[in-house]
Write a structure and sequence with these properties.
- The structure is a homodimer.
- Chain A is mainly alpha-helical.
- Chain A folds into two domains: 64 residues, Arc Repressor Mutant, subunit A, CATH 1.10.10; 146 residues, Up-down Bundle (Four Helix Bundle (Hemerythrin (Met), subunit A)).
- Chain A contains ten helices and three strands, in the order H-E-H-H-E-E-H-H-H-H-H-H-H.
- Chain A has a three-stranded antiparallel β-sheet with strand order 1-3-2.
- Chains A and B meet through helix 3, helix 4 and helix 7 of A and helix 3, helix 4 and helix 7 of B.
- The structure holds a DNA duplex.
Amino acid sequence: MGQRRADTIAEELEERIFDGTFSDGDRLDEVRLAQQFGVSRTPLREAFQRLALSGLVELIPRRGAFVRQPGPVELMEMFEVMAELEAVCGRLAGKRISDQALAELNEANAKCLAAVEAQDSDSYYVENERFHQILYRESGNSFLRQEACKLHKRLKPFRRQQLRFRGRLAQSMAEHEAVVKALTAGNGEAAAAALRDHVAVQGEKFHTLMASLRNAAE
Amino acid sequence: MGQRRADTIAEELEERIFDGTFSDGDRLDEVRLAQQFGVSRTPLREAFQRLALSGLVELIPRRGAFVRQPGPVELMEMFEVMAELEAVCGRLAGKRISDQALAELNEANAKCLAAVEAQDSDSYYVENERFHQILYRESGNSFLRQEACKLHKRLKPFRRQQLRFRGRLAQSMAEHEAVVKALTAGNGEAAAAALRDHVAVQGEKFHTLMASLRNAAE
DNA sequence: GTCAATATTTTTGTATACAAGAATGCCCTT
DNA sequence: AAGGGCATTCTTGTATACAAAAATATTGAC
């Protein structure tokens, strides 16, 4: 049933929620948006359901669809779960990763390093993505990979800014290398620990995250 | 937007998928089901979307809604993730659990023991549920709790039969006690390991799971 | 002037109608 | 008889219409 328009509309709305056009608590008006998109209410309602699935929107019976941005507490919780999921991927990958995948990780890491030296945080961001996607895959568990990807995507808008700060790139880089080293040694537990620390929000990262939240609220 | 009928219809369909009225690959016919429920196609389509969210149904554009039961591989993967999620809950609970919650766990466990002695696997099942729900809660992470509950619910139909076999009840009971002991000692790592083993599908459990799958296919 | 009850207006939820794409069957060709 | 192309039929996706619930405004009493 995924449909032409409802699909694209869902994406468009997702975009607008991420970029701040809609903020927390806003009601998504069916008729207004329908007019705006030049469609009827039906595809709009289907799009709302999609967004509710990914947690971006809350559907309240007989009341409507409301934008639901995670607050500080929920965000911390989500990052904690992300850290644990990545740790699990790392531990499983310790036993299951292929030599080829290890080579891919090294390659992604090399590009990361190049980006660090070029002070190119955007490029770092892209390669960082690749690094983590490979990890999810090499957990050898497709279901886990999907779940990790879902949460990863959901946290995207909050993670991006994290990297734009002095020293973070180099530190992040070192953490990646610890992960690869552990995986090369087949030490899943060490990889898990390294990933948990890498993803966890703590210390300096906590403050930057809170600051970015404050920005988004405006 | 959750609505009166679409909501109940989704639950009803979920029921029918679990109890085997619909099996893997079946197409859910909008018009037939609409007539059957005495409603129009609209609420049916909304219900489909709900089910797609929880992964029970796959929506293929311009083709329809198809029942999607996990195969053996996917099922093993889901159990592996469940084991890891519970392990995470356990590890976090090691640091965060309250004395009151520990008392609740002991109480649930006592009732489990009574059920074991009475050879009452249904009653054991209920208290076992409670045991795990408490654990999710005591992870101190609401988001984690929700995710754990979602997966737990999805695996429900496959777990139930697991307990109906000789020796499983007693073994499961012993595993619970190991978890409580670890948590009482504040040893998160030990609790995590105990939970991982408790939930993981391995050894005998593997064969009973495969057997139950074969039954469900008929 | 304030509060409450009621009337009005919005807005959601559902039904029906219509349009377009996919599947099926038929006929024709080779 | 087998394969391909075309027409028919069925099914999904979208629009519109209508009903019921919620929100809002209005009126009246104190």
